[in-house]
Amino acid sequence: MRRHIGLGLTAFAAAAALLLAGCSGSDEPAAEQGPKENVKLTFWTWAPNMDKVVATWNAAHPEIQVTVNKQDGGDPAVTKLLTAIKAGSGAPDVMQAEYQKIPTLVSADALADLTGKLDQGTAGHFPETVWKSVTLGTDAVYGVPQDSGPMQFYYRTDIFKQYGLQVPTTWDEYAQVARKLHAADPKKYLGTFSANDPGWFAGLAQQAGASWWSIDGESWSVSVDDEPTVKVADFWGGLVQDGVIDNKPMYTPEWNAALNNGTQVGWLSAIWAPGVLEGNAAATKGKWAMAPMPQWTPDQPATGNWGGSATSVTSQSKHPAEAAKFIEWLNTSPEAVTALAKVSGVYPSDQPGQAAALSAPPAFFANQPDFYPKAAEIAKTARSFTFGPNVNVAYSAYTDEFGKAAQAKSKAGFTAAIKAMQTTTLENLKSSGFSVK
Amino acid sequence: MSTGSRAATRRPRRSLAPYAFLAPAVLLFAAFLALPIGYAVYLSLRTVKVRGLGLGKGSREQVWAGLSNYSKALTDPDFAASVLRVAAYGVIVVPTMLGLALLFALLLDTPRARARKFSRLAIFLPYAVPAVISSLLWGFLYLPSVSPFHHVADRLGWPLPDLLSSGNVIFAVANIAVWGGVGFNMVVIYTALKAIPSEIYEAAELDGCGQIAIAWRIKVPVVLPSLIMTFVFSLIATLQVFAEPVTLRPLTNTISSTWTPLMKVYRDAFTRDDLHSAAATSVILAFATFVLSYGFLRLVQSRAFGQENR
Fold first, then answer.
1. Signal peptide location in the record (chain A) (predicted)?
2. Considering the domain boundaries, does residue B222 fall inside one?
3. Judgement on whether residues A252 and A372 belong to the same structural domain of the protein
4. How large is the ipTM?
5. Residue-wise pLDDT tens digits, A22-66
6. B198 touches chain A (CB under 8 A)
7. CA distance, residue B80 to nearest chain A CA (Å)
8. Residues A368 and A244 in one domain
């Protein structure tokens, strides 16, 4: 008896489903003919207060409404996105993507090519090296640059004065200052070599002229152990081996304490450093100053990048044209760029809007009124750097290998770590089937 | 369906009832255990092949990999190192944790114990602290420049060793596990002790047994099955150690991304975006867990549970 009822119910459900399907099927053409429906876009980002910036867009564009979905940060967002891409659904329309992650995302077919969907002049808003990060040197465009992280040297002016130290302009001088400071007070260090921050080391290598990946025709090549990188690794290995530079990772409670109590006297960091210092070492306000990076060849000043990201459209977006319009507004319109700098606290890559957006120095560096003009000069010297499709592999090899070397405080270990990074990165590309030269 | 209905009409209750009772368990087992394991095994036999630059659509495809993911995992020196490390970690954690749990349970069970409820709660409480939080707490205590222990010791002129250095970090991680695990195991053993009828103790006392002799000759043999159960639990927890080293990792250079086998699985799946290698390592790990726990139970069963079976 019961089975019959069940069958009946199933039949009824099936009929209902057919009816519903029929209804929606006949509805679709009608919707296309009628007035265009509002487009709803989702946007994954971890930039603070991005919802406030986006609210300006939503107010002016009722037909394209963007919802901000706050993410934890670059790595977890990429993991989530890749999972959604594999699953076939669940990805947002618009995604903040760190420059070093773009090749990985493109390789996983997670990002849409925006060729033809952006304004002709968009590329002209950005420095060439930054624009290259979203094209990967190909004809495609995988996003619009949002912020960059040109590197500078941050130091404690009061402690430099106390010990009669000069701000280093070359890496030789940096080593001398490090030795002099540590000799004067063995508890103090000019900086630390952080084996937990591959992006930091990549920036230092970039400054020296390295580019770890390159596209050669239809093949990748990997050169993590190129001459500039080995030079950088040897330099730091020597300082760590002599104990004049600390070997503990950054972003630990211990490092925060060291920034606060003046045992870490300098920090090779990027344009966003004021925000970090304000959060982690609030007691030192007004005691810091920013200077250009120490140089390898003083007559050819250069810097690297640590951080920075683009805004991309994902391959799952059903409205790539509308999404492209939004990210173009977000990263190149004067009102959005100003809001990004003032409300979200990012350092916009947009060249025309940058100066107006950053008229006053960051509050934590009120003592340095020319902070942003100086930073803009430094940013112009950023060298180009190509990221490959397995940056994550190279970066995790960095933390493992340099973790060992920094712990052992051995210069030879630093050289070996670079070789091991190269082997791991290259082998991974080869075994995945990438064409490699 | 048709056979089922005929059987049902002939012998209604008897043949259907057991299946009806079994159905929820079988369904849950199939949906949440058998299927995922089957899928993991399937994934472990596949791999992704990339063509050319690997950029753009259609440049990667999933292909059969045979056992190559397994051979890669088994010959990976990082994996071998992580297995040895976890073995050493287990040798430190399991005896210490179970030894302390047994000791505390026996102490609480002695007639002269005072403030029993408070002590039991105090020893059990760390178990209620999530591993991530306890690792953060201990992490702060380990870091020399922020640790109150180091601060006091330095003042007194007895410098403490750096617990996060290469040689010590395994003890630092083990300590967190022991701190968190003793309470749970103690409660299990203590509950078993409470089940022992007091006549046995009276008889033993009449025979001239002291408290230590009672503990050693009566209590320990009686709670042996509980000890075995807690041992198997601890063994499995050891093989799966993950949260503590992952939480401590950003604080130090000495914990690599493949410090334990599960960390290698995590790195393969989420850092390297290689689900297939991760699946192969997971299957190896699951198999090892099964062999070790089943093998151990077989080994001790006849001794510990012999009486029950007879």
1. 1-26
2. yes
3. no
4. 0.85
5. 444 444 343 344 446 789 999 999 988 999 999 999 999 999 999
6. no
7. 16
8. no
